[in-house]
Amino acid sequence: MFFRIDTKSSTPLYEQIIYQIKDMCLTGLLRPGEKLPSIRDLSSQMVINPNTVNKAYQELERSGIIVTIRGKGTFIAEDFPLTPLPEKEKKIQSQVRQLVIDCHYAGISKQRLLEWTEQCFAEMEDRSS
């Protein structure tokens, strides 16, 4: 399992871990029931603070994407929820608003953004099939 952390990115490290685990699930690199590295192993592999990995794992567990079984480890959930939680939906809506504002000031048209969005959804559908 290979994680890539960009320490110069404005995205917090724990969010980069969350995104990469979610992406690996979508691409099939991580399968339901697959064991994840321990917090200690992953933090030493990435040379980051264990609290950062712990925070990512906690967030993923709250989202139902991973489960931790005491004494056995952390695993990809067998069936994670695909219905949006209200607070998560609100957060995503806020992120989309920020993206639209960024596109406006970068000179990217609504049509171009919609094309990229369609392309991303198509890629995810291809990966998951």
What does this structure look like?
By secondary structure, the protein is mainly alpha-helical. The chain has 2 domains: 13-76, Arc Repressor Mutant, subunit A (Orthogonal Bundle); 86-127. 59% of the residues lie in helices and 8% in strands. It has a 3-stranded antiparallel beta sheet with strand order 1-3-2. Strand 2 and strand 3 (73-76) form a beta hairpin. Helix 2 crosses helix 3 (50-62). The chain is globular, with a radius of gyration of 16 Å. The mean pLDDT is 90.
Assigned CATH superfamily of the largest domain: Winged helix-like DNA-binding domain superfamily/Winged helix DNA-binding domain
Please give the radius of gyration in angstroms. 16 Å
For the record, the CATH architecture of the largest domain stands as: Orthogonal Bundle
Classify the secondary structure makeup into a structural class. Answer: mainly alpha
> What name does CATH use for the topology of the largest domain?
Arc Repressor Mutant, subunit A
How many individual domains?
2
The average pLDDT is 90
**Shape summary:** globular
What profile does the largest beta sheet have?
3 strands, antiparallel
How many beta strands in the DSSP annotation?
Answer: 3
End-to-end Cα distance, whole Å, is: 21 Å
Q: How much of the polypeptide forms β-strand, as a percent range?
A: 5-15%
Approximately how much helix is present in the residues? Answer: 55-70%
Low-confidence stretches: none
Q: Order the strands across the largest sheet as they lie in space.
A: 1-3-2
